[in-house]
Amino acid sequence: MIRRLYSLVMKGAQPLLRRKLRRRGAAEPGYLEAVDERFGHYSEPPRPGALWIHAVSLGETRAAGILVDALRERDPSLRLLLTHGTATGRAEGARLLREGDVQAWLPWDTPQAVQRFLAHFQPSAGVLMETEVWPNLAEACRRSGLPLVLANARLSEKSLRQTLRLKRLAQPAYASLTAVWAQTQADAQRLTRAGARVAGVFGNLKFDARPDAAQLEKGRGWRRAQPHPVVMFASSREGEEAEFFRVLAAHHELLRAGWARRGSDPAVAQVRWLVVPRHPQRFDEVAAMAAQAGFGVSRRSEWNESGPAEADVWIGDSVGEMALYYGLADVALLGGSFLPLGGQNLIEAAASGCPVVMGPHTFNFAEAAEMSAQAGAALRVQALQDGVREAAMIAADTTRRDAMARDALAFAGAHRGAAARTADALLAILRG
């Protein structure tokens, strides 16, 4: 009964979804691509038997790419069906495709759209990355006998509370999964409470990612040419940048007034600040925000091969170049952690040897954040103002900075192996 009511709500919400897609498409044209796929209508000819992997957004798609590499190393003939929910996820997923692979949107979770999706593509098995468990999708896979697993699975305390409030709807969906492979023991315990049968704790796939070596070296070359320390605000989120520029402006105003001893730190003024927004559609907005705060701005899209132009603030307005930015930076402030947004992925920074200063909100990567702090690779602060000051001080102290960089590399290296474990378990299901 509860799932029937849910299905009616989802069906009734379809016009709202179309309206939302039109609004998002004005800023990100990718959302206007193949809109009918969102409702289970496909123009792509069916190619039954592919392994279906669903990665909703950019972070999940990058994790899926690590798994795909491990799978193809074991079975080069493997064909893929990749589905996504966001434009950035779909754009990133296109890089993973080989001849014979297919890419599509995952349909809106109505029984009719889900049935059309499964009937059209007829995958051999399904892999949901990290968190994406939909009731009608899970039930349709169970009824059709399609193995459906949750890989690199995580569930925060907040998400668990929400799940338990809707347990009559959510618990059957989790219980229908063929296997759940959790990132951490804490995730496994929460997933079990949600109704899942956890088959293993495999670690986080993102530890197996290797930064692009050419990008990393290019960024480090640019850093060596800089006379000042560089601090990056990595994957900053809406609301954080305004506070960040306010904090910087306050420091600079105090210094100009000769009040360094009354709350400002000269190290802050010596830093070159690099801001890399999490969402590409906000690049222009963040650059304008920096200029309105009185800072000289230079954007990555304007740089040549010699690197950044002289400016107070650099804006990383490109996609797929995080290794370049981590190579350029001495220290990174962790975006999404200074507001209750859960924090962005700090593992990529560690793998690049870049120390991290993070805020209080890291529930999306709770265990990784805690372990990185214990390993000396990261430092936690309670407010963005404290983070700006601490990051500047670390960047200016080469001994401390180098020690944290070594600890970061060691931390990243010590937790690899999830990709091999996940690929082996998945292929065992495929081979029956």
TrEMBL record:
Pathway: Bacterial outer membrane biogenesis; LPS core biosynthesis. Residues 34-209 form the 3-deoxy-D-manno-octulosonic-acid transferase N-terminal domain. This is 3-deoxy-D-manno-octulosonic acid transferase. SUPFAM superfamilies: UDP-Glycosyltransferase/glycogen phosphorylase. It is an enzyme of class 2 (transferase). Involved in lipopolysaccharide (LPS) biosynthesis. Catalyzes the transfer of 3-deoxy-D-manno-octulosonate (Kdo) residue(s) from CMP-Kdo to lipid IV(A), the tetraacyldisaccharide-1,4'-bisphosphate precursor of lipid A. The active site is at E60. It comes from Ramlibacter humi. It comes from the Bacteria. Its main location: membrane. InterPro entries: Glycos_transf_N (IPR007507), Glycos_transf_N_sf (IPR038107), Kdotransferase (IPR039901). It is found in: Cell membrane. GO terms for molecular function: Kdo transferase activity. The lineage of its organism: Bacteria, Pseudomonadati, Pseudomonadota, Betaproteobacteria, Burkholderiales. Keywords: Cell membrane, Lipopolysaccharide biosynthesis, Membrane, Transferase. Its EC number is 2.4.99.12. The record marks E130, K206 as: Transition state stabilizer. It catalyses: lipid IVA (E. coli) + CMP-3-deoxy-beta-D-manno-octulosonate = alpha-Kdo-(2->6)-lipid IVA (E. coli) + CMP + H(+).
